[in-house]
Design goal:
The chain has 236 residues and is an all-alpha fold. It has a domain of 131 residues: Tetratricopeptide repeat domain (Serine Threonine Protein Phosphatase 5, Tetratricopeptide repeat, Alpha Horseshoe), CATH 1.25.40. 66% of the residues lie in helices and 0% in strands. It is built from twelve helices and no strands. It is elongated, with a radius of gyration of 20 Å.
Length: 236
């Protein structure tokens, strides 16, 4: 099963709306247009896509190169499943601010949905170049590399994410998945158990394996059943 990428500036909650989007050389907005942006972002964060889209479009009538509006319209297209349009809009936003780490990350997420995994990795690389501590871009990069079966590189990405945040349970979990592919089973067990320690819910989350996925993988690995452990992880 394809790994879920993290979208936005934090999927920063898979595109549940913009968070902390920054403007580089922002246009001078009147109090009225600034209020429109605030309201648009609030609508978007609340999942009111039609209302948010209308306000973003109003802002673009005032300032056609308004980065946040261009970028967030791309996010909305992504949320609606129109990935080709999302890519066009995010590219338009990046023409305005080519140094936006969140836009490069979001572009990578869209490219994954379009099946362009290598291009997605390149976008994540740009996001990380502009924001070296951007954990979600680092994890997304690992996910795309795993899909490409570039397991050593994926492992390096997850290790980097853990170095940035040693309490990142998802990174430890994904690291365990890659270690299984690399047949480094003892290390995979250690990663899964660390994920469980950080997020106990991992041991009670149901899966198609008929048992909690991470705990099931650990038990299968301990019993030497590597194929079953790999299957359980793929079904998470």
């Amino acid at each position: 099963m394809k790994n879920k990428a993290r979208f936005g500036s934090k999927r920063q909650a898979v595109a549940h709306g913009p968070r902390g989007q920054r403007l580089v050389n922002p246009p001078i907005l009147t109090p009225d247009t600034a209020a429109l942006l605030t309201q648009a972002l609030a609508f978007h964060q609340a999942g009111l896509l039609v209302e948010a889209e209308g306000l973003y479009r109003k802002l673009l009538l005032v300032c056609p190169k308004h980065f946040d509006s261009l970028h967030m319209l791309g996010v909305i297209d992504y949320q609606r499943g129109d990935h080709a349009s999302a890519l066009r809009r995010i590219d338009h936003a990046l023409n305005v601010d080519p140094r936006s780490a969140s836009a490069h990350n979001n572009r990578g997420v869209v490219l994954v949905e379009l099946g362009r995994l290598a291009d997605a990795v390149a976008s994540y690389d740009k996001a990380i170049a502009f924001a070296p501590g951007y954990i979600d871009a680092v994890v997304n990069r690992g996910n795309a590399l795993k899909e490409l079966e570039r397991f050593e590189e994926a492992l390096a990405s997850y290790d980097r994410a853990i170095s940035l945040n040693p309490s990142n349970a998802d990174a430890f979990n994904k690291r365990g998945n890659v270690l299984i592919e690399l047949r480094r089973f003892d290390e995979a067990i250690a990663s899964y158990e660390r994920a469980i320690a950080l997020r106990p819910a991992f041991q009670s989350r149901p899966s198609a394996c008929g048992a909690p996925p991470v705990r099931r993988s650990v038990s299968k690995l301990r019993s030497g059943n590597c194929a079953q452990a790999r299957l359980c992880r793929s079904l998470q």
